[in-house]
Amino acid sequence: MSIPAVDPSRALLVFTMRHAATDPRCGLVRGRLMANNEILFSRWDPCTGSDNRVEIEYQVAEFSSGVSVQRVSASLEGGGAQALVPILPVALSRSFVISSSENLGGVYNANDAPRVWLYDETTVAVETDYPEGGRHEIQVVEMDGALVQHGSFSMGVVDVQTEVSFAEVDPARSVVLTSFGVSYASQPPVGAGFLLATFLSPGSVEITRSTSGVSVDGRYSVVQFPPSVLVQQDVAHLIPGDPDVNVPLAVPVLESKTVSLCTRNSRSSVGSAGAIGEGWATVEQTGPDNVKVQRRATAYEADVAWCAVTF
């Protein structure tokens, strides 16, 4: 799809999606901002049927100064479990990554939840716990005035909660971004592969899931934006049967300056036979003082984190 002209080196693509798919080949989507002012969204298979229809809410944020964005791709199609992708040098203390993936395989398992992180100042790592194949798009964002702390976390097979600590930040201008891998080749409860990360305090984040059954290894980045940035965030709770919820913003914002930066930050009690779409929801700014969280698969409860970041 075409968009108004932007400078890709200063523009960031973020998107959320909703669907009712059970097959990762149909329900996992990667997105790329192209150099010709187009956005490419793709998945592994074309897929038919209403459950496999994917609806996407996207935003492209272009910054006038102070932000640089690098775009790189990685492929694990050959059966590898890790790719190290070179990038131009960045400062780790003010840089973070946003990624999206499409994956091979009809079962939601370990290759469908890649860990993507800044390996060092000149390298991005993409890793899964099961080498079945996948294609990944990564945006490396470096922002003047930001303070970014990176770390790792893990959960055992029976764990549903863990906590990470870091130097204190201001939650009113900070977000937490996670990526994680799960260690199974078959399909346990789908909900074991969905994690919700929220601030417990200025110096800690709690990471939880609704269902256990597999071990998890992940990476996180706590991003504190410059003082001029406002972050409003919370968790929307959807009970079985609920397709959407409207959330009022405490502080009205300019929609043209606000980005829904938190993507795939949710938990669901969906079982092994359920749709992976239970854990996916779109986050849409529907006015200066309202955010709408919406999903298509509604058989199970879900908690979806949202954040409205106003630059």
Bin the strand percentage.
over 45%
**Unreliable segments (pLDDT under 50, ≥5 consecutive)?**
none
What is the rounded distance between the termini? 25 Å
Give the overall silhouette. globular
Oligomer state of the chains in this structure: single chain
User: How many strand segments?
Assistant: 23
User: What's the number of helices?
Assistant: 1
Q: Radius of gyration from the CA trace? A: 18 Å
The mean pLDDT is 92
Largest sheet: 4 strands, antiparallel
* SS content category: mainly beta
Q: Determine the fraction of residues in helical runs and give it as a percent range.
A: under 10%
Provide keyphrases for this structure.
311 residues; mainly beta; 4-stranded antiparallel beta sheet; 3-stranded antiparallel beta sheet; 23 strands
Topology:
Layout: E1 11-18, H1 24-27, E2 30-33, E3 39-42, E4 55-62, E5 67-75, E6 82-86, E7 95-103, E8 115-120, E9 123-127, E10 134-143, E11 147-155, E12 161-165, E13 174-182, E14 196-201, E15 204-208, E16 216-224, E17 230-238, E18 244-248, E19 258-259, E20 266-268, E21 282-287, E22 290-294, E23 302-310
Antiparallel strand pairs: 1-4, 2-3, 5-10, 6-9, 7-10, 8-9, 11-16, 12-15, 13-16, 14-15, 17-23, 18-22, 19-23, 20-23, 21-22
